[in-house]
Structures are given as C-alpha cells and as structure tokens.
Amino acid sequence: MKKNHRIQLRLTAIEKTAIEMKAKKYETSITQVVISATLNKPIPIKWEPDEQAEKLKNELSIIGRNLWMLIKYKKKFQLSEQFKIQEIINELLQLVQKINQYYDRKSETQS
C-alpha cells in the first residue's frame, strides 16, 4: 500500500530526542517508531539490541578512557615506568575486531 498521507506533530525537544534515539537504537525510521507505538505494533527492526554487546561497548569505552589517561599522565609527569601501551592498544584492537566479526556473522544469519 502506498504511503502518501502526512501527519505533523508538535513535540518537546525531549520527546523528539527520545523518539530519535529509539529509532537509532533499533536501526529503523522515526516513522516506524511512531506508527508502531500508536498502533501497538512491534517495531520492525533489523536486529535486536544485544545487552552483552552494550556491556562490552561500555567496558571498551572505559578501557579506552583509562588508556588515554595513562598516556596523558605519562607525558605530563614524564613517568619513568614503562607502560606497554602499544601492546594494550593492539590487544584492544584485536578484541574489537573479534567482536565485530561475531556480530557481522550474527547479522548475516538473521538476514
């Protein structure tokens, strides 16, 4: 069925942001989020958010910030201790690649 009708909505900035975030979370359109909510239908999504992936993403973010602080303090205070920073970076990059490969394969099987 062809979609050729429009509805205009007035929203607060917070409401608009919440809808946009939900659409982004489920990799779908704002239109689909609004229609699904209004008609009590499930949101048509490309993939389900994975709690484990979100936890890993948060942990990697924390590790990255900590690593950046180590580099910053090493330079600032001219620390004599040798941090194996490049090794840590390489390990993190390998971990991210493995995670990406896992979820790439997972998304291919769901398609």
TrEMBL record:
<dbReference type="Pfam" id="PF21983">
    <property type="entry name" value="NikA-like"/>
</dbReference>
<dbReference type="InterPro" id="IPR053842">
    <property type="entry name" value="NikA-like"/>
</dbReference>
<protein>
    <recommendedName>
        <fullName>Mobilization protein</fullName>
    </recommendedName>
</protein>
